[in-house]
Amino acid sequence: MVAKPMLGAGYLLQGVRLITRPGLRRFVLIPLAVNILVFSLAIYLGAREFAAFLDLVEAQIPSWLGWLEWILWPVFALLLLVVVFYTFNLVANLIASPFNNLLAEKVELLLTGRPLQDSGSVGKLIKELLPTLLDELVKVVYALALAIPFLVLLFVPVVGPLLWFLYTAWILAVQYSDYPMGNHGLKFREMRARLRGERGLSLGFGAAAAGLGMVPVVNFILMPSAVAGATAMWVREFNREHARARYQGPYESRMTTRWVRLEIDHLSGRIGGEILLGPLQGQRLESITTEALLELLAGGCASDPDSAEALEVYLSRERGQRFAERARARQEQEPRSAPPRPSGTRMSDDEARAILGVATSADNDAIRAAHRRLIQRMHPDRGGSAYLAAKINEAKRVLTRVGEAA
């Protein structure tokens, strides 16, 4: 099984990529500036006060103890790093929280193509400023209250630091998941309940955020990246409405065979999907062990060439499996520019739109842009798949032909 913690960490990495997208950068700059300002101010004030403290100490002790300064400064630097990470990061989040709600909203729009009701604006920002700040205070109180037993256990060798890291991971998952979930009206208690329902996923996301926060300079992008990553995690893992509707976002491709549906994220290149037939019917690919998928590939799925090749694509890209001999045998049998289809049939318009992730109203320019974006990730020369590239190219031909006819 794909480890849930690794999947959670993957969402944070996806958040790092998402904040570079045009249309999202402006929602990143203000929180980033706040983080830099607070972080720099904290270091300046801390260093100034500590220098004044050392001057006071030096005036009270003999001159031969002046070497103590060389020990106290490194100790102070370490303590300052801890204080800034755990205290001032909370303050920065508190100040920037209204902008984080807007960022979460825009990321969700990018991923799903569906705007929230009462979509974000300056008026909404001002209207929700006080409730948002109060919600941030609730999270701060929750984090401080929960920290007490973990601080006591921190003095237990080995176990204590590990528990403290898990505490930090949980708090960060709660902190950043609250923005997309709060946009949908989830109360703090319900939000925590959903995260507890997927502890491995949540802790994996939080642990990755904690690790990123410990890297100097890089930690400046932690807040916007974590908000974007938590939003992607909400859309794909926690949003029950999304799971029921199974609607397709504008940056998502779907390729359906008899046994398998592949879902490809254009932005990250990540492939997921679902088994549509057989003993594993209805289960997500991400939740099935590699061994079970290989058994399915060798069993019933082998009766349908398209399904077998689609499953091979998933196992190759997401599980590191290699099927070079099978691919070579297929290529020797029939070099092809598109997947074989029964005589007299062709890819339907709906299937082509699902593959490219474009709406019914998309014109030829939008179709070509979607094709270019997708083929860059899925072309065999870039580590992709000949099967996917063929499907993508066929979808473009079908839709551009339809557009020209119209």
From TrEMBL:
Alphabetic keyword roster: Amino-acid biosynthesis, Cell inner membrane, Cell membrane, Chaperone, Cysteine biosynthesis, Membrane, Sulfate transport, Transmembrane, Transmembrane helix, Transport
Region (Disordered): 322-349
Main localisation: membrane
Biased composition (Basic and acidic residues): 322-335
Cell compartment(s), UniProt: Cell inner membrane; Membrane
Keyword flag Transmembrane: yes
Domain J: 351-406
Transmembrane segments: 27-47, 67-88, 200-222
Taxonomy, superkingdom: Bacteria
Bilayer topology: Multi-pass membrane protein
Matches recorded under Pfam families: EI24 (PF07264)
Family that this chain belongs to: Belongs to the CysZ family.
Role according to the record: High affinity, high specificity proton-dependent sulfate transporter, which mediates sulfate uptake. Provides the sulfur source for the cysteine synthesis pathway.
Protein name in the entry: Sulfate transporter CysZ
